[in-house]
Amino acid sequence: MNGRPISGASVGARTRSGKGALALVLGLLLLLVTACGGGGGDSDAGSGGDKGKDSGQADTKVSQAVVTIAPKDGADAVKTSGALKVTAAKGKLTEVKVEDTKGNPVEGKITGGGTSWTPAAHLAASTKYKVHAVAKDSAGREAAEESAFTTLTPKNTFVGIFTPEDGSKVGVGMPFSVRFTRGITHPEDIEKAIKIKTEPAVDVEGHWFGNDRLDFRPEKYWKSGTKVTVTLNLDGVEGRPGVYGEQAKTVKFTIGRSQVSTVDVKTKKMTVKRDGKVIKTIPVTTGKAGYETWNGQMVISERLRVTRMNGETVGYGGEYDIKDVPDAMRLSNSGTFIHGNYWGGDAFGNYNASHGCIGLRDQRGGGDRGAPAAWFFDRSIVGDVVIVKNSNDRIIDPDNGLNGWNMSWEKWKA
């Protein structure tokens, strides 16, 4: 009894299974007929199905473009110039992005028809950079590469000591002058690292005096109101083998009103012009025989309310030592000043009695601000021009002070 129900159940199961299988076969046959002839003989339907199949299939082919970044990822002590380069083979570069860890970008451009990229300037020292580059092959497939590296930390460095100071208002004769703490043997790299922008725009050129000083000026005196912005991007510049700059600074200064004063040694008078108009004529005394004052265009580079003048500092040992010279303004590195003189008696406008300086009557201590020297001092700024003419001496050297105006524009640019 226990076995029969089991046997009956087994037979029933086989019977239902057979009917299900038959239904399944009939369904599959019907589906097959529909799939084959469902388009009603429309040949385009089959074609459309193929298109749909193609468009849904991803392009799995790898780009043939090969991007190479130098230096390699993880490189250390990388040179700041000449080491960074991105190239593409079997394709063209479409994007190159280089920045430091602060997000500051490195400018550059893709050249060679898309085969290479180089930075527009040197890199900073002791800095980590990241590079991301993309290239496309002829089929438009992209290949990308990334790299990170750190530039060298220099053992020997230099800076540029400059004038005028940031935020200054200066006279129309003021050059931008940089004196380097180490002699420079790669001047072109230094020039590329210093950018000067002016408003309104004017051509500004640099000129080297020796290997440690670089001055910039326009062809003619600045126009009043000109705004000058200087970018000193010296950080990482190799100024000489193994010696790198460590300075990155922006300096801004403005050109004030125009004041140009002319000293005539023969008449012993100085004519002061403000914005092209004479505002005062002042009696002066200049260098006596054997100590004549330089001729030429000189720029006020320093203003001292009171200073000491000792002949020993300029090769005239024992001839004078005046501890309280009032209202003094430097015109040359060699010791030429235009200054107050309280000991000159009646020399002003009558005879030349100095050791090469230009003297104006003043009061001891400079207390009388109406005295000629005090009046001139209070109305002068660094960068104002003082021209000396009709002296028996030669024209002052362009590098003796900020006096590059005594060089022609053609020689200056050369």
From TrEMBL:
Keywords: Acyltransferase, Cell shape, Cell wall biogenesis/degradation, Peptidoglycan synthesis, Transferase. It holds the Pfam family Big_10. Residues 259-389 form the L,D-TPase catalytic domain. InterPro entries: Big_10, LD-transpeptidase, LD_TPept_cat_dom, Transpep_catalytic_dom. SUPFAM superfamilies: L,D-transpeptidase catalytic domain-like. Coiled coil: none annotated. Residues 41-60 are annotated as: Disordered. Pathway: Cell wall biogenesis; peptidoglycan biosynthesis. CDD domains: LDT_IgD_like_2, YkuD_like. The active site is at H339 (proton donor/acceptor), C357 (nucleophile). PROSITE patterns: LD_TPASE (PS52029). It comes from the Bacteria. This is Ig-like domain-containing protein.
